[in-house]
Amino acid sequence: MTGAEELRSRTRELLAAHPPASTDRLDFLRARFDAGLAWVHYPEGLGGLGAPRSLQSVVDAELESAGAPDNDPRRIGIGLGMAAPTILQFGTEEQKRRFLRPLWTGEEVWCQLFSEPGAGSDLAALGTRAVRAGEDWVVNGQKVWTSSAHVARWAILIARTDPDVPKHRGITYFVCDMTDPGVEVRPLRQVTGEAEFNEVFLTGVRISDTRRLGEIGDGWKVAQTTLNNERVAIGGMRLPREGGMIGPISKTWRERPELRTHDLHQRLLKLWVESEVSRLTAERLRQQLVAGQPGPEGAGMKLAFARLNQEISGLEVELLGEEGLLYDDWTMRRPELVDFTGRDAGYRYLRSKGNSIEGGTSEVLLNIVAERVLGLPPEPRTDKDVAWKDLAR
Amino acid sequence: MKNERDLLYSEEEEALRAAVRDLLTDHCDAPGVIARTESGTPHHLALWKALTDGMGLAGLLVPEELDGQGATHREAAVVLEELGRAVAPVPYLTSAVVATEALLACGTDDLLRDLATGTTIGALAVALNVAPGAAYRVVRHEDGLLHGELTGIADAAVADVLLVPADDGGLYAVDATTATVTPQISLDLTRPLATVTLDGAPGRLLGDAEPAVRRALRAGAGLLASEQFGLAEWTLTETVRYLKERKQFNRPVGGFQAVKHRLAQLWLEVVNTRAAARNAADALANGDDVDVAVTVAQAYAAPVAVHAAEEALQLHGGIGMTWEHPVHLYLKRAKADSIAYGTAGAHREALAALADLEAP
């Protein structure tokens, strides 16, 4: 096992061989990956050293104080948080070697072709078809809510390969080349006015069988790995006090006493307390992960933040009064990042409505907490033993 | 914040929890607590003796040289989590925390020794509803004797010594046998209140009342959050257990989505309460960022404990409304706790100044 001291000295060796001040950003990131310091818990040769995940912070702290470049994990979040752990667990050696390095350095952006117009919360009902044609699969269908699709080089894709078995069993997981001529990406304009997401139309897209992840028909199990990693990624954040959505409204309250009313004051204090407590729960969860005793709290963090973001941003629009009647810009933009603090309160209000839908609706997450954490009986299922093709649609 | 908060439990704290829980399982079951509330002596003094004589828990906050354990608020918080789970009718929060903190502020060694061993029970003669920064009533100090009446004094019925603030700014130790202690009919049957009447009672000056009362109430409010967490966790666990078994419409009631969502929401609140209570206990132990940590914990934990107990009663259906089922003990304790050491509103008001979010 690789200890903290060894990681620290390896990091210093990297910095000595590639001084950040005189090294090209991408060259530095590639060298970091090759030194096993990208994600230390990954295997050797794949950007890691098989060290405990908690020791990544040792490397990060050394690099940060040396002013080393960052791979901007926000911009490549889907690749890092979801594609990478899935490829690591289910990919072939060749797939891991081909995809993980440019994914981590950000040279190749990833997106996720999961949701469909008819399969959101009921994701396993998806209808995009993949039909075997020799060494290839031919894919036809439509995906939706795909962030980064317009800049992505690769996508993780789930498609139906067997309509004659119940819905969870006939799905297969692929890596899709977004530059294939059969892939058409159309912006999907949202309530905020911008198009952060896309619709993706797949028409006769040929995917080599070597780009399949996991066994044929086993795609639902593979997708669970992706989705669980998505939720873990949300719980690992570390925020200072007032680090979330409560920050901007608290600042406005302090700077503009003319806006204050007693009613708004009561509501602000209540939300301030709840924000602080949620931050403490996230911090407790982080400490549990570091101590190697992960708790179930992560399942609830997304629920808590979604509700808080919506309530706080709603209050903020109200606090602003006349100004709250205005909006900064309705021009259709194509942002690469969700920027909650760079835009105005109206944007925050509208965008936060998505927090209780994206990555699993709050209703679905409440079911997950009730069933997996509290052990309550599952929802009655009418589609369990029915072939997908026979389901009502 | 200077120090990084430790929001987890150490192995020693988990061992302490296990020991307290075992003791409570053996000596403090719900039917026993209910029966006791209907007697003239609602407090469980044999349990108190086991906790204090047997385990030394009354002295957790007292230094070792004064016969205490020299432990911290983190350990006391774990004890309170367990006492909350059992709605145990013992004067732990009032004597081992609040009265002890008042004495620590005054540096009264002999009385601290007595409280630390549990042989003497102390009660701060300030009404239970008073928030750490709020005004409190005092008695008249005249010719070396104390005169006056104080109401809402928790656990005064079993106190041996009363710590009484007087109009000269002093805090006095009064032997309970020289005062008249009259039980009040209390909402919370397991932490009953009493009226204390002093009619020329002799008192020994301990020190300045103001800093001692503030410190005592702040520790009380901060650690009350751990009791509220324990209480809320018990009601949630018990409700989930019941709803997995109880069937209606040929299905376990816990399988209905409307019920599942309520319980999942409650679980989230309980999980948050643990983090807030842990943060307050750690802050009290380390003396950093204490005021914010305590007000946040109390503003959050009090409504959650009430919500948890109310949901428990509702989701138990008819049986939840009966005297024989213990859920009412938890509801009464939770509601009284939501007023004890300041309401959530009082703590939010205090927070306005602490977090620089001033009122209009």
Automatic annotation (TrEMBL), chain A:
Gene Ontology MF term list: flavin adenine dinucleotide binding; oxidoreductase activity, acting on the CH-CH group of donors
Keywords assigned by UniProt, alphabetized: FAD, Flavoprotein, Oxidoreductase
Record GO cellular component, one term: plasma membrane
High-level lineage: Bacteria, Bacillati, Actinomycetota, Actinomycetes, Kitasatosporales
Protein name in the entry: Acyl-CoA dehydrogenase
Cofactor: FAD
Pfam family, one: Acyl-CoA_dh_M
Boundaries of every Acyl-CoA dehydrogenase/oxidase C-terminal domain copy: 217-374
UniProt domain Acyl-CoA dehydrogenase/oxidase N-terminal: residue ranges: 27-107
Similarity comment: Belongs to the acyl-CoA dehydrogenase family.
Domain Acyl-CoA oxidase/dehydrogenase middle: 111-196
From TrEMBL, chain B:
Cofactor: FAD
UniProt keywords, alphabetically: FAD, Flavoprotein, Oxidoreductase
One Pfam family cited in the UniProt record for this chain: Acyl-CoA_dh_1
Domain spans labelled Acyl-CoA dehydrogenase/oxidase N-terminal: 10-111
Superkingdom of source: Bacteria
GO molecular function: acyl-CoA dehydrogenase activity; flavin adenine dinucleotide binding
InterPro entries named in the record: AcylCo_DH-like_C, AcylCo_DH/oxidase_C, AcylCoA_DH/ox_N, AcylCoA_DH/ox_N_sf, AcylCoA_DH/oxidase_NM_dom_sf
UniProt domain Acyl-CoA dehydrogenase/oxidase C-terminal: residue ranges: 213-353
PANTHER family on file: ACYL-COA DEHYDROGENASE, ACYL-COA DEHYDROGENASE FADE28
Family affiliation: Belongs to the acyl-CoA dehydrogenase family.
Protein name as catalogued: Acyl-CoA dehydrogenase
The organism of origin for this protein: Streptomyces qaidamensis
